[in-house]
């Protein structure tokens, strides 16, 4: 790999357009330059938008879940933890906004550098896993409704969420060790990966985490959605149109669309470009190729952060329970109907309507 010097590039390292990337003697790219002027505008602006929208949307969601949605059903439990993860992340963005607006100078110390980088990946992988939980639960409700009614309860969802938090924290503890700061002239850089000496080890660790927390959950989601689509496309003989719960089927389709859009915009491009960037560095790719991949990787970082803004769309579209409650708060409509009241008091009574929040 490129044996970058102490001031070499690592993850989100920033170099002015005229700054060479130091590499070891004997390597092809002895004076490779990264043109990263674009990110001093792109990242502060995009992170500011994500911070504002994410904080507003997720604060409203948390308030709704805590004050208006009790008792929680299983889907609401997962969505509450998803909103909590997004909120913790957007609260860390002001420091990153300052960092990039200040042209990659980090004045907040090593500890906060580790915390900010940790929260980015914690939110990333918690979001993926909670979306996986929501998808698996919807699959069970659509394809195995009777079994789900008797076996899946909100207390089980709380236990699953605890496992998710613990698993993500354990997997990301090495991240706290790898991440550090370094000096470049008069600037302090907050590394997104590791010091150059540990980069090979970091790439190996990152590959394992990506397999466990991204690729496997994504495959689970794809399988669940394929099985759900097959079930939803089959006519339910012997049932009237009302009994088939057309609205529930539409909400399941909306869930599939929203989750796949989140993956297509936020998660898949980020993991592909990051993997290519790491691979090109390890393989000592030519400077022009490394610049192109680095540019693509930096572009997808704010896209990955956008999941904090897109997740609330899931709460609104996945079921009219959350939507109707939210609209009632802002429009001051009359109290809920008796059927809605019954569903609120008996969150597991209608498994096919678990998407109602």
Automatic annotation (TrEMBL):
<feature type="transmembrane region" description="Helical">
    <location>
        <begin position="208"/>
        <end position="232"/>
    </location>
</feature>
<keyword id="KW-0812">Transmembrane</keyword>
<comment type="similarity">
    <text>Belongs to the G-protein coupled receptor 1 family.</text>
</comment>
<dbReference type="GO" id="GO:0045028">
    <property type="term" value="F:G protein-coupled purinergic nucleotide receptor activity"/>
</dbReference>
<feature type="transmembrane region" description="Helical">
    <location>
        <begin position="45"/>
        <end position="66"/>
    </location>
</feature>
<dbReference type="GO" id="GO:0030321">
    <property type="term" value="P:transepithelial chloride transport"/>
</dbReference>
<feature type="transmembrane region" description="Helical">
    <location>
        <begin position="253"/>
        <end position="272"/>
    </location>
</feature>
<keyword id="KW-0472">Membrane</keyword>
<protein>
    <recommendedName>
        <fullName>P2Y purinoceptor 4</fullName>
    </recommendedName>
</protein>
<dbReference type="InterPro" id="IPR000018">
    <property type="entry name" value="P2Y4"/>
</dbReference>
<dbReference type="InterPro" id="IPR000276">
    <property type="entry name" value="GPCR_Rhodpsn"/>
</dbReference>
<dbReference type="GO" id="GO:0045030">
    <property type="term" value="F:G protein-coupled UTP receptor activity"/>
</dbReference>
<dbReference type="GO" id="GO:0005886">
    <property type="term" value="C:plasma membrane"/>
</dbReference>
<feature type="transmembrane region" description="Helical">
    <location>
        <begin position="157"/>
        <end position="178"/>
    </location>
</feature>
<keyword id="KW-0297">G-protein coupled receptor</keyword>
<keyword id="KW-0675">Receptor</keyword>
<keyword id="KW-1015">Disulfide bond</keyword>
<keyword id="KW-1003">Cell membrane</keyword>
<feature type="transmembrane region" description="Helical">
    <location>
        <begin position="78"/>
        <end position="98"/>
    </location>
</feature>
<keyword id="KW-0807">Transducer</keyword>
<dbReference type="Pfam" id="PF00001">
    <property type="entry name" value="7tm_1"/>
</dbReference>
<feature type="transmembrane region" description="Helical">
    <location>
        <begin position="118"/>
        <end position="136"/>
    </location>
</feature>
<feature type="domain" description="G-protein coupled receptors family 1 profile">
    <location>
        <begin position="57"/>
        <end position="315"/>
    </location>
</feature>
<dbReference type="InterPro" id="IPR017452">
    <property type="entry name" value="GPCR_Rhodpsn_7TM"/>
</dbReference>
<dbReference type="GO" id="GO:0002250">
    <property type="term" value="P:adaptive immune response"/>
</dbReference>
<keyword id="KW-1064">Adaptive immunity</keyword>
<keyword id="KW-1133">Transmembrane helix</keyword>
<keyword id="KW-0391">Immunity</keyword>
<feature type="region of interest" description="Disordered">
    <location>
        <begin position="334"/>
        <end position="357"/>
    </location>
</feature>
């Amino acid at each position: 790999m490129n044996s970058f010097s102490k001031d070499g590039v690592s993850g989100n390292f920033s170099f002015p357009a005229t700054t060479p990337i130091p590499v070891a003697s004997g390597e092809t790219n002895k004076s490779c330059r990264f043109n990263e002027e674009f990110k001093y505008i792109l990242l502060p602006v995009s992170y500011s938008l994500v911070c504002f929208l994410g904080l507003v949307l997720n604060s409203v969601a948390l308030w709704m879940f805590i004050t208006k949605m009790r008792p929680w059903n299983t889907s609401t439990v997962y969505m509450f933890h998803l909103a909590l993860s997004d909120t913790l992340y957007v609260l860390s963005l002001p420091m990153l906004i300052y960092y990039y607006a200040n042209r990659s100078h980090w004045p907040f110390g090593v500890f906060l550098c580790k915390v900010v980088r940790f929260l980015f990946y914690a939110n990333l992988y918690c979001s993926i896993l909670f979306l996986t939980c929501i998808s698996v639960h919807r699959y069970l409700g659509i394809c195995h409704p009777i079994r789900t009614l008797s076996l899946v309860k909100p207390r089980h969802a709380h236990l699953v969420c605890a496992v998710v938090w613990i698993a993500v924290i354990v997997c990301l503890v090495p991240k706290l060790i790898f991440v550090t700061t370094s000096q470049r002239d008069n600037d302090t850089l907050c590394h997104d990966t590791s010091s150059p000496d540990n980069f090979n080890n970091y790439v190996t660790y990152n590959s394992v985490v990506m397999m466990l927390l991204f690729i496997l959950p994504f495959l689970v989601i794809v399988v669940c959605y394929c099985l759900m689509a097959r079930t939803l496309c089959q006519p339910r003989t012997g049932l009237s149109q009302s009994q088939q719960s057309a609205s529930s089927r539409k909400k399941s389709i909306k869930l599939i669309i929203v989750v796949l859009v989140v993956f297509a915009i936020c998660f898949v491009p980020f993991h592909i470009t990051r993997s290519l960037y790491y691979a090109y560095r390890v393989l000592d790719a030519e400077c022009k190729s490394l610049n192109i991949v680095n540019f693509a990787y930096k572009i997808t970082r704010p896209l990955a952060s956008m999941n904090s803004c897109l997740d609330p769309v899931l709460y609104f579209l996945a079921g009219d329970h959350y939507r109707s409650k939210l609209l009632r708060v802002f429009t001051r409509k009359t109290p809920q109907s008796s059927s809605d009241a019954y569903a609120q008091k008996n969150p597991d009574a209608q498994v096919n309507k678990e998407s109602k929040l």
